[in-house]
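Troubleshooting: if your tokenizer reports a length mismatch, compare your output against this known-good record of 170 residues.
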Amino acid sequence: MQKLIIFTLFFLFIFKNISYGGTMGDFTLSDLNNKRSSFSDLKGENLTILDFWATWCKPCARAIPKLVALYDQYKDRGVQFIGISVDSPRNLPKVKPYVSTRGITYPILLDSNNELMSKLQITALPTVLVVNDKDEIVYVHRGYRPGDEKILQDEIDKLLSENSTEKKDE
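Known-good structure output:
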């Protein structure tokens, strides 16, 4: 039994960042100014990076500056980043100052009742989803450790390269 548990934990650790394979349905959430915005209105031409985070999440606080840098690097290449705060209604007043302090310039949406998070079966913060131009969830990364931004950068580069190859073939 102990070997089975160890094997299961090892398997989950090794494969925690594999491709998701599902399709991102359209959704609508409020932004920081209480304006409703939909995924279809905000998504990128080539890729969309969804970052699920909360103000109380320490790994999220370490990941966000790296995501801001990646956003600045890729925003002119058809890659849109969308931050999704999953802070509870009680913590919502903290979100706007948190975003401002960290210099986040990409859109932020509020999932304060965790409906989208539940629908997508997201169980850890931060979680990053990469969605291609066909609305397929092609990559998922849970958690944050220093260096994870390089893994995400490599994945974005690979997907952009595949996307440009596909468009040339059409």
